Amino acid sequence: MLVIGVNDADKTTTIGKLANNLTNAGAKVVIGAADTFRAAAIEQLKVWADRSEASFVASTQGADAAGVAFETVKRAKQVAPTPTPVLFDTAGRLQNTSELMAELAKIIRVMRKVDEDAPHETLLVLDATVGQNALSQVENFRSVTEITGLVMTKLDGTAKGGVLVALAQRHAIPIHFIGVGERAEDLQAFSAQSFARALVGLPN
User: Fold this and answer.
1) Rg (Cα) of the chain, in Å, rounded?
2) How many CB atoms lie within 10 A of CB 47?
3) What is the rounded CA–CA span in Å between residue 2 and residue 87?
4) CA torsion 45→62→74→11, rounded to 10°?
5) How many Å apart are CA 136 and CA 134, to the nearest integer?
6) The pLDDT value given to residue 81
7) Are 57 and 30 contacting, i.e. CB atoms less than 8 angstroms apart?
8) Are 88 and 121 in contact (CB under 8 A)?
């Protein structure tokens, strides 16, 4: 599962929560820290990996992100045939920054040297506070890779995430999770009915 998005969308935290929830469900998780731009991202993800008892693959700040992706897929293959969820963190990138989008494409190419079907899932993490800008984020990231699901974070504040309605109409990408807080259990499975009622101010 490749997790992508712009800066400050809460990708790293989302991966940590996913890892924790998967471990609690009995899975052996592998996490790849392919955000090599920020040392803090590697450290933050290591804390989540330790907390969820996940296998952790990382390098130093400034290292080749594609190399981390390659090693992570190799690590997961070593525990086959046991199904192993693999979660990749990637650097936050502006959707209009061509060199960083090219790096994302390289990560995918390198992963496919180990597993030709990788990534099996690509989640785009969207910040609920960005409003209509989420539409251009989806369009630009889709030019680099297929997006199989969306995660909307920061719905614990005043933002209601109404742009998800426009995204569903325009792109028909499944919405898998919403983030409503900092705890692992605050990453919740998306419910269209509950979301629609909350959006218009009705109780669930």
Assistant:
1) 16
2) 11
3) 6
4) 40
5) 6
6) 64
7) yes
8) no
What is the rounded CA–CA span in Å between residue 76 and residue 72? 6
Q: What type of residue is 25?
A: A
Predicted confidence (pLDDT) at residue 95 exceeds the cutoff of 60: no
**Residue by residue, what is the 3-state secondary structure of the chain?**
CEEECCCCCCHHHHHHHHHHHHHHCCCCCEEEEECCCCHHHHHHHHHHHHHHCCEEECCCCCCCHHHHHHHHHHHHHHCCCCCCCEEEEECCCCCCCHHHHHHHHHHHHHHHHHCCCCCCCEEEEEEHHHCCHHHHHHHHHHCCCCCCEEEEECCCCCCCCCHHHHHHHHHCCCEEEEECCCCHHHEEECCHHHHHHHHCCCCC
**Residue 137 pLDDT more than 70?**
yes
Q: Which two tokens stand for residue 109?
A: 């190419």
List, in order, residues 6 or more apart from 28 with CB less than 8 Å away: 54, 55, 79, 82, 84, 85
For 30, 148, 152, 153, 164, the CA distances from 176, given in Å and listed in that order, are 20, 9, 9, 11, 12
Q: Cα–Cα–Cα angle for 153, 157, 162, nearest 5°? A: 60
Dist. CA 190–CA 196, nearest whole Å: 11
* Residue reference for tokens 């400034």: 62
82 pLDDT above the threshold of 60:
yes
For residues 189 and 204, give the distance between their C-alpha atoms in angstroms, rounded to a whole number: 15
